[in-house]
Specification:
The structure holds three protein chains of three kinds. By secondary structure, chain A is mainly α. Chain A has four helices and no strands. The chains are: A mainly alpha, B alpha+beta, C mainly alpha. Chains in contact: A-B, A-C, B-C.
């Protein structure tokens, strides 16, 4: 799949997920602390939604950064190196982010 | 008896650059008389003939058909030969003329267009006729002709190419002018290789490099629409096989009359 | 330099995009503190809930909203091929973004002032 299509598909997904995220998590604004988040995050469905959200955010952000860099002619011969770096960063960030989402458990 | 001083004057600011003496471009102001019917190109000629013979610019036909005199006037690319000087003056009676942006300057208002032509040749801008051409004539429907009309009046002036910020970032981009020409050939029912053309354009330097900035539409002196051509090519590239097959079918009937609907 | 509404939208989209990539990794780092336990999480969140960060949050909201609405505009162009109304569509994007930022930003500022 082309980066162009990746950007468009993840963009459509983000419009949906980000709207949910903004309304549910940040509206109206409040002091965020662990206990309040736990109530919502206790539901496995929210964990699943957040993991999918994380996936699309990382795809969109890293593909976007790659496009911004490789649009510059002097970086275009590094496009494979940048793509490799983006995939590695994406995998690490996805692992770390998933671990974080799963860590929202009521303290035992 | 006409007195030349009765005409108001216009201030023409021109970006000058002589590679033999200048480190970088600088602006120079000239005063020209604002006679009725004077174009921006006439003003440049007036300056070159009577004020500064070293002023360098390209022009040829003066009828907006050769594509030589595209320049950056008041922040917009246009042909100076059919731009009335009076309409281009700001309220202080000034006009600013620079060479086409994002291209290497050779001297004054002349830019190096080699990347423009290299990218143009890259899309094979000529028609590839089918192996067995009709004996008499090709028959085309009004719809097919209309599609060609939307692209064939391009005069290769470079206004769209040098208005594109992506061209400014990378000269590897095929560019709006060449993509519009490729669109013209792909849409032509006489062309035998639309599939190969679409495959060539279907890359990071082709239709997917366009960032939909629309400068090419604004810049085109012939009111063509390279952005829409690129959008169309992007869609056609995704159904390349089907499009190619439809063209093969179409070319079996090139010499037959178009059935009435 | 060739300025036009198209270029301004392109430049803003790139700038907000790069800013949001930077923010994303900061966000992951802040929320990631939950791995070290609830106390670490609350401590790091308290740091980023100071008034200065509330103002930055409005800027963040503006960046997200502009980037999203402009992205929708680009997608509309892709799927409908509308190029004639390019300027109007850009101004519509600015208007819609402004309204959404006001709708989201006013509660943030009010919350900041009232504590």
């Amino acid at each position: 799949m082309r980066v162009f299509q990746m950007q468009r598909i993840s963009a459509i997904a983000l419009v949906v997920f980000l709207t949910i995220h903004m309304i549910v998590v940040h509206y109206p604004p409040f002091h965020i602390d662990f206990d309040q988040i736990i109530i919502r995050m206790a539901d496995p469905l929210w964990k699943a939604i957040d993991i999918v959200f994380l996936f699309f955010v990382l795809v969109h952000a890293l593909a976007g950064a790659w496009v911004v860099l490789t649009d510059v002619q002097r970086f275009s011969r590094l496009k494979r190196a940048f793509a490799g770096a983006a995939i590695v960063i994406g995998l690490i960030a996805f692992y770390y982010g998933t671990k974080t989402i799963l860590a929202f458990q009521p303290p035992v | 008896m006409s007195n030349p001083s009765t005409h108001p004057t216009a201030t023409v600011r021109i970006q000058r650059f002589n590679p033999e003496t200048d480190a970088k471009p600088h602006m120079q102001e000239f005063q020209v008389e604002l006679k009725p019917g004077v174009t921006v190109l006439d003003a440049l000629h007036e300056i070159k003939t009577h004020q500064d013979g070293s002023l360098t610019f390209r022009r040829s036909c003066r009828h907006a058909i050769c594509g030589s005199c595209a320049m950056h006037v008041n922040g917009k690319n246009e042909l100076v030969c059919n731009a009335p000087l009076k309409d281009r003056l700001d309220r202080n009676g000034r006009i600013t003329i620079r060479p086409l942006p994002y291209l290497p300057i050779i001297k004054d208002l002349v830019v190096d267009r080699s990347s423009f032509w290299e990218q143009y040749l890259r899309v094979k801008p000529w028609l590839m006729p089918p192996a067995d051409t009709p004996e008499k004539e090709f028959r085309m429907s009004p719809e097919e002709v209309a599609a060609l009309n939307s692209a064939e009046t391009c005069i290769m002036c470079g206004a769209c190419y040098s208005s594109c910020q992506i061209v400014g970032l990378t000269k590897e981009y095929i560019g709006p002018h060449a993509l519009l020409k490729a669109f013209l050939r792909v849409m032509d029912p006489r062309d035998a290789i639309p599939g190969a053309r679409l495959a060539d354009l279907d890359g990071a330097d082709g239709v997917y490099r366009c960032r939909t900035i629309f400068n090419c539409i604004d810049a085109c002196p012939k009111n063509l629409n390279p952005t829409l051509a690129i959008e169309t090519l992007r869609k056609l590239a995704q159904k390349r096989e089907a499009f190619e097959q439809a063209r093969i079918e179409r070319q079996k009937h090139l010499d037959e009359p178009i059935p009435a609907r | 330099m060739y300025t036009s509404s198209g270029f301004i939208s392109f430049a803003l989209r790139r700038l907000t995009g790069v800013a949001l990539v930077v923010y994303l990794f900061m966000h992951l780092w802040v929320i990631g503190s939950v791995n070290a336990g609830p106390e670490a999480f609350d401590a790091r969140l308290a740091f980023v809930q100071q008034p200065l960060f509330k103002l930055l949050e409005v800027a963040l909201l503006a960046a997200v909203v502009y980037h999203a609405v402009d992205g929708i505009r680009i997608m509309v162009v892709h799927y409908t091929g509308i190029t004639e109304y390019r300027k109007s569509m850009f101004y519509a994007v600015l208007a819609v973004s402004t309204l959404l930022v006001i709708a989201g930003g006013v509660p943030i500022i009010r919350f900041m002032l009232e504590g």
